[in-house]
Amino acid sequence: xxxxxxxxxxxxLRIGSYAMIVLSVDTAHAACSVCVFDTVANRPxxxxxxxxxxxxxxxxxxxxxxxxxxxxxxxxxxxxxxxxSGPGTFTGVRIGLAFVRGLSLVLKVPAIGITTFAALARSxxxxxxGRHIWVIQDARRGEVYLEGFxxxxxxxxxxxxxGISQAGExxxxxxxxxxxxxxxxxxxxxxxxxxxxSSIPDVAMIARxxxxxxxxxxxxxxxxxxxxxxxxxLPLVKHRESTLSxxxxxxxxxxxxxxxxxxCFEDAWDSAAMAALLATPGTxxxxxxxxxxxxxxxxxxxxLRAAADEMEILTLxxxxxxxxxxxxxxxxxxxxxxxxxxxxxxxxxxxxxDNQAAHALYESxxxxxxxVRPNYYRNSDGTASNAIxxxxxxxxxxxxxxxxxx
Length: 406
Fold this sequence. Notes:
- The chain is an alpha/beta fold.
- It has helices spanning 56-71, 90-107, 116-125, 164-170, 203-212, 254-261, 271-278, 327-341, 356-364; strands at 21-29, 31-38, 43-51, 80-86, 111-115, 133-140, 143-149, 155-163, 176-179, 192-194, 237-239, 244-249, 283-292, 295-307, 310-318, 346-352, 368-378, 384-393.
- The protein has 3 domains: 11-117 and 201-212, ATPase, nucleotide binding domain (Nucleotidyltransferase, domain 5, 2-Layer Sandwich), CATH 3.30.420.40; 128-194, 2-Layer Sandwich (Nucleotidyltransferase, domain 5); 237-393, Aminopeptidase (3-Layer(aba) Sandwich).
- The protein is built from 9 helices and 18 strands.
- The strands form 3 sheets. An 8-stranded mixed β-sheet has the order 11-12-13-14-15-16-18-17, sandwiched between helices.
- Helix 6 crosses helix 7 (271-278).
- The radius of gyration is 24 Å and the shape is elongated.
- The relative contact order is 0.10.
């Protein structure tokens, strides 16, 4: 579903109430959805939603660009971001939140997480006639996620994960409306009517609620009521008492990588370029995050491209404030570990001859110079710098410590 571009006047010509433009996404359910929402007109300027069970990460960035173009604005016009924070699929929740948090770094605007419960309950209020609303989502394994609201939208039962029979007992003497994918699973009393509102949250409602939020200081984080079904993949590197973690990152992290790359290079790659590279077969980023106040914050990454049994390091970037803390060295160690797991025989890298820091780093982790490309890099002052090509043969490299520490 897609709404065509509106004929509204440009933002700088609008008169009256302050216009807030919100970009919202939902990848937590069986669809990938993006909305550009105008809080003054109280309607979407564009909305795109495509049913899908998987592939959200690969589609989301392009869909956001399509929605922005359809709305007739640019990303610079966005003043708030929002994503469904769950409950939903664990991978889907993280994809949407990672996308808006990365874009938040680039645009320097708040990112808000809106729960599935809040979005569905608010969608039901128009037809509730002041009755209580019970949001019931299928949690699988014979369980449901449940939260209750009064007619004004206030919570009357906290968000919980319950067995289907437990939910039936809880709701046996309740009345009002029930909404969600789990409503049909529970034995409901006649006084509790199942609403016809979709069990997939309306991405426009997510934007509307985000636009109304008064506290924008809290980070947009997943809303989990139980631990993931799948065991989390172990990070490639844990460093300095586990404060630094390095894990693979795909297209959903393009905005995060661009935000790190920008202060590191004059000709930095933007999020579109990052997304295009990451969409290329064999290309992956290893993202380093540093723990701070209980959360992992991105601080550096390395971008890799593999073909057959060889791998190329396309770029490595560490935020200025995170340098001289072992992040770059830990990333290079992670490259070796990742390449070894992928069956790579040789890793190649290229860097400016006058970049002494890069030369010292790569030499220290075993890369040997293969040659020089004269005047390969063009500098902003019109001069040129030679490029050093170097490589590491994994079959000849010393084994990594079993502990995984640099």
